[in-house]
Design a protein that fits this description.
Elements lengths: L5 H10 L3 E8 L5 E3 L4 E2 H4 L1 E4 L5 H8 L8 H7 L4 E6 L5 H8 L6 E4 L3 H13 L7 E4 L1 H12 L3 H7 L5 E5 L1 E2 L2 E2 L3 H9 L3 E5 L4 H9 L4 E2 L4 H8 L3
Parallel strand pairs: 1-5, 5-6, 6-7, 7-8, 8-11, 11-12
Antiparallel strand pairs: 1-2, 3-4, 9-10
Helix pairs in contact: 5-6, 7-8, 7-9, 10-11
Protein name: Cytoplasmic glycerophosphodiester phosphodiesterase
Organism: Microbacterium azadirachtae
GO molecular function, one term: phosphoric diester hydrolase activity
Length: 231
């Protein structure tokens, strides 16, 4: 099953998932579509960047691979799901913001590059969102937070997390442990959540939640639901 496809979202919804993580890139028409990679190479064997392909052509190419959705279409098609949206490039931010404006109560925006996330939030505000979507910090926020929590710099930690609702982190980065008790405590003290990606092993899922993780990003929604569903 192809990631970010309509079929993948439908499968997660059918499995009982309440939250889905997806990625957005802009097509040549400026539409924010659910697509992870910069190019079509891995999924379709086509070397062109997503940004150089029109939305209709991309939808036709993706028709036999689970179905392409714009973010707006996905939000309308799955009204019960909550969406974690990774804004992959700055050119997608404006359409992401417009798409989520009416659905902000069930959307969390994130990006490795905080400029993308902030631009999407600004676009949602400009589109008349009554409340802004939740948001998670990018690479620089995570790096600063890891350092500040290790040094127990409470004021600095709270400043980093100001206006953020979550941090989404890997369990480790190379030899560096990112998910630590001090980081978890610091984030919770500031009133935010810790989400860990990408965990597909049930034992690790359970251990991370037991260690304070508020959410697990996974490719295996079925395993996560079976493992973490309250008994």
């Amino acid at each position: 099953m192809f990631d970010n496809s309509a079929l993948a979202l439908a499968a997660a919804d059918a499995a009982g998932a309440q939250y889905v993580e997806t990625d957005c890139r802009a097509t040549a028409d400026g539409d924010a579509v659910l697509f992870h990679d910069e190019t079509l190479q891995r999924l379709l064997g086509d070397p062109r960047p997503v940004a150089e392909v029109g939305t209709r052509e991309l939808a036709a190419l993706f028709a036999s691979h689970g179905g392409l959705l714009t973010l707006g279409e996905a939000l309308e098609a799955f009204p019960a799901l909550r969406f974690n949206v990774d804004v992959k490039d700055l050119s997608a931010a404006a359409d992401v913001g417009r798409a989520v404006a009416a659905h902000a109560h069930r959307v969390l925006l994130t990006s490795f590059d905080d400029r993308n996330r902030r631009a999407a939030l600004d676009a949602a505000r400009a589109a008349g969102a009554e409340v802004l979507p939740a948001s998670s910090g990018g690479r620089s926020a995570i790096a600063l937070l890891r350092l500040a929590s290790a040094l127990r710099l409470t004021r600095w930690t709270r400043r980093i997390l100001r206006n953020l609702d979550a941090v989404q982190i890997p369990e480790s980065f190379g030899a560096l442990r990112v998910f630590t008790p001090r980081l978890v405590d610091a984030v919770h003290d500031a009133g935010a959540e810790v989400h860990v990606w990408t965990i597909n092993d049930p034992e690790r899922m359970r251990a991370l939640v037991d260690g304070g993780a508020d959410g697990i990003v996974t490719d295996r929604a079925d395993l996560a639901i079976a493992t973490l569903r309250p008994s």
